C-alpha cells in the first residue's frame, strides 16, 4: 500500500514537472519567435539544445526521470511544434508576415479585377463579380432609401436602341452614314443635356441626419453601406465620429495639381456609346467631370486617359498601379485620386434618379478593405490609408444624402485593395451602368462635382 502511494505521489510530481517544463518551453519558444534574427543565427538544432539546457537547469533530472513515462510525449510535442523544421529567416520587409507564391499573388490580382461586375462587350452578358453576395449583379438590390431601380426598360440587345418614329434603314443611305449621323445626334443631345443639367445644383440641404443616429453602428450600416459577404467590418472602422472627424479638405490652392482622375477600366461604355470612341465611354464622362471641376469650381485637375483593360481586363489594376505611382511621384501636390468606372447590371435594371428635374445615373462609392471573411487581413495587399479612404467616401455619401437624396447607392465594401493605397483621399466611383445613356452619366457629374467642391473645401 505504501509502495502504491509512493508511486502515485511520484507520478503526480512527475506530471506537475512535465507540465511546468512544457510551459517553460512554450515561453522560451515565444521569446525566440519574437526575435527572428537571433533565431536565424542560432539555428534549429541550437534552439533545441538551448531549450534542453534551460530545462535541465531549472528542472534537473526531468529529462531522465520521466522519459519512460507517457507524459514525456507532451514535452516532445511542444518541442516539435516550436521547432518543426520551419525555415526561420529574418523578416525581409514590412508587411510581409504572410508570404505568398507568385502564382497565388497573381490569382489575387485577377480576383481583385474580377471583383466588379462588367459586361461582355461582344455578347452583352453581365459577368457577376467574384464573391458577389447573391451570385448575381451587385446592383440588383434596393438603394439606401429603399427605392428600387427602374426595371421597365427594354432589354439591351447589344445594338443601338431604336428611336420611336424612325423607319428601318432601307439601304438607300449607307450604314456608315447612318452611324455617323446617329453619333452626331447623340453628341448634340448630350451637349444640350449638359447645358441644362449645369443648373441642377442644390444649395440647400433637403435632409439632415442627427449625429446620435449616425453614431449607431446598426443604423449606419443599414442606411449607408452594403457589405459584401466576402469581407467583414466592425464599429471600430465604421464610426461616424472618426469618419467625419478626418479633415479631407484640400491643403493648397490650384497653382499646382490637386486632383487626379483616371480609369482602371477605360473601355466601359453606355447604352448608346459607339465602340472605340473614348469620348462616348466612361473616359468622356471623366472629361466632363474634369471640365466642371476646373472651369466651374477652379480646381487644378489632371485627367489621365491611359488604357489598362485592353485585351486583359483581369490584370487592369496591376497594370494601372505603376502608371498611377509615377503620376503621383511626378505631381506630389495631388491630394485626391478618383478612379471613375461604370457598373454592370442586369439588362432590365436601370440606375436612374431625378435631381432638380434632370434624369441622371446613380453613382456608387466603392471601398476595398484588404480583408476577406475567410483569411482575415490580407497583409500582402496592405493599405495604410483604409481609414482615410473610408472617411472621404462617407463624407461624400453623407453630403449626397443631405443635398441630393437618392443620387447615390449605398457604399459598397469588398475585400481587396483596388489601388486605393497610393493616396489617402482616394475615391473609386461607379457612374451608372451599361443600361444608362451617356447623357444620364454626364448629367450625374453635375451633382458629383458639386459634392466634391463641398467636401474638399469644407462647406457645411
Automatic annotation (TrEMBL):
Ranges for region Disordered: 120-182
A Pfam family: SpoIIP
Keyword set, alphabetical order: Membrane, Transmembrane, Transmembrane helix
Transmembrane segments: 14-32
Biased composition (Low complexity): 145-154, 172-182
UniProt-recorded name of the protein: Stage II sporulation protein P
Organism in which the protein naturally occurs: Roseburia intestinalis
Lineage: Bacteria, Bacillati, Bacillota, Clostridia, Lachnospirales
Amino acid at each position: 500500500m505504501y509502495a502504491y502511494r509512493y508511486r502515485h505521489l511520484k507520478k503526480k510530481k512527475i506530471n506537475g514537472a512535465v507540465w511546468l517544463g512544457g510551459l517553460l518551453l512554450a515561453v522560451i519558444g515565444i521569446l525566440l519567435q519574437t526575435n527572428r534574427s537571433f533565431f536565424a543565427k542560432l539555428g534549429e538544432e541550437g534552439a533545441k539544445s538551448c531549450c534542453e539546457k534551460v530545462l535541465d537547469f531549472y528542472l534537473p533530472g526531468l529529462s531522465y526521470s520521466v522519459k519512460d513515462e507517457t507524459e514525456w510525449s507532451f514535452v516532445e510535442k511542444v518541442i516539435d511544434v516550436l521547432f518543426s523544421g520551419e525555415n526561420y529567416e529574418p523578416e525581409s520587409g514590412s508587411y510581409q508576415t504572410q508570404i505568398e507564391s507568385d502564382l497565388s499573388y497573381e490569382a489575387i490580382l485577377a480576383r481583385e479585377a474580377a471583383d466588379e461586375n462588367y459586361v461582355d462587350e461582344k455578347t452583352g452578358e453581365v459577368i457577376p463579380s467574384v464573391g458577389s453576395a447573391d451570385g448575381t449583379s451587385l446592383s440588383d438590390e434596393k438603394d439606401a432609401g429603399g427605392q428600387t431601380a427602374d426595371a421597365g426598360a427594354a432589354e439591351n440587345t447589344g445594338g443601338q436602341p431604336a428611336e420611336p418614329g424612325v423607319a428601318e434603314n432601307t439601304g438607300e443611305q449607307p450604314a456608315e452614314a447612318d452611324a455617323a449621323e446617329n453619333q452626331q445626334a447623340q453628341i448634340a443631345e448630350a451637349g444640350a443635356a449638359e447645358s441644362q443639367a449645369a443648373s441642377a445644383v442644390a444649395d440647400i440641404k433637403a435632409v439632415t441626419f442627427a449625429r446620435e443616429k449616425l453614431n449607431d453602428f446598426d443604423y449606419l450600416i443599414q442606411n449607408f453601406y452594403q457589405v459584401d459577404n466576402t469581407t467583414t467590418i466592425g464599429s471600430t472602422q465604421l464610426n461616424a465620429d472618426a469618419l467625419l472627424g478626418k479633415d479631407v479638405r484640400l491643403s493648397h490652392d490650384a497653382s499646382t495639381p490637386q486632383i487626379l482622375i483616371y480609369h482602371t477600366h477605360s473601355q466601359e461604355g453606355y447604352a448608346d456609346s459607339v465602340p472605340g470612341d473614348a469620348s462616348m465611354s466612361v473616359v468622356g464622362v471623366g472629361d466632363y467631370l474634369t471640365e466642371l471641376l476646373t472651369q466651374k469650381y477652379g480646381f487644378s485637375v489632371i485627367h489621365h486617359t491611359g488604357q489598362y483593360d485592353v485585351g486583359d481586363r483581369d490584370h487592369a489594376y496591376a497594370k494601372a498601379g505603376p502608371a498611377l505611382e509615377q503620376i503621383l511621384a511626378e505631381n506630389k501636390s495631388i491630394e485626391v485620386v478618383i478612379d471613375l468606372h461604370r457598373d454592370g447590371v442586369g439588362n432590365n435594371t436601370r440606375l436612374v434618379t431625378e435631381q432638380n428635374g434632370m434624369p441622371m445615373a446613380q453613382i456608387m462609392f466603392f471601398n476595398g478593405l484588404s480583408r476577406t471573411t475567410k483569411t482575415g487581413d490580407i497583409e500582402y495587399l496592405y493599405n495604410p490609408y483604409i481609414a482615410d479612404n473610408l472617411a472621404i467616401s462617407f463624407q461624400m455619401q453623407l453630403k449626397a444624402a443631405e443635398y441630393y437624396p437618392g443620387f447615390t447607392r449605398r457604399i459598397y465594401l469588398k475585400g481587396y485593395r483596388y489601388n486605393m493605397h497610393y493616396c489617402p483621399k482616394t475615391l473609386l466611383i461607379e457612374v451608372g451602368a451599361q443600361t444608362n445613356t451617356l447623357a444620364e452619366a454626364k448629367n450625374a457629374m453635375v451633382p458629383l462635382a458639386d459634392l466634391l467642391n463641398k467636401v474638399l473645401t469644407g462647406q457645411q
